[in-house]
């Protein structure tokens, strides 16, 4: 009986959480991120990721929010994800996923730099990353950058290096204003409680009220699943489970990098 009660409670929580997500997708989201007054300006945003599929697996709530607000979003992917020799395939999959997410192909760039190859133990030079990000921001007049935090959600070293590369750029960007935000890595418990984590994310965001942290719900779950499915070389059973049970699918918390 006890287990039945626990399972029933979990199912009710999941249902209530999904209802919250769908409610926000049908009505305007209360998130104030980049809402600057009655007529917020369109921002040129650069999302910096390490591998193809990072955008769909970790940043879908952020992407859907930005696109729904008509911001001009560019994606810079630092590698082709060639650890298993499928770099060319994964690169094309990124373009397919971006199309589903309504990001034009000309606003997606994937690098295949010899010093930025995918893999655990592959150390990426922070100075090199900073220079590449800076060039991209100048090319597209970017004034806002989003990337991983220092843990990189999954702890992958490439994710962490991308974060450090952006920090290096911010430190060296003398006389130039660049606004930067990081996606906060949830702890191991919150990471795998699916949509239930939206309540904790909303609570923590409201407690801070400092304008330095925002909680964004995924406004289009179906689009997110469809985008991840475009990465067919990676769409294996354990990633399907991850996308279903990871809180990253349902909610993102962005924190300003000072």
TrEMBL record:
Give the record's GO CC terms.
endoplasmic reticulum
Domain of life of the native organism: Eukaryota
Extract the signal peptide range. Answer: 1-19
Q: What is its EC number?
A: 3.5.1.89
Q: InterPro entries of this UniProt entry?
A: GlcNAc_PI_deacetylase-related, LmbE-like_dom_sf
Q: GO molecular function terms here?
A: N-acetylglucosaminylphosphatidylinositol deacetylase activity
Q: Which UniProt keywords apply?
A: Signal
Homology family: Belongs to the PIGL family.
Indicate what this protein is called per its UniProt record. Answer: N-acetylglucosaminylphosphatidylinositol deacetylase
Organism field: Perilla frutescens var. hirtella (Perilla citriodora)
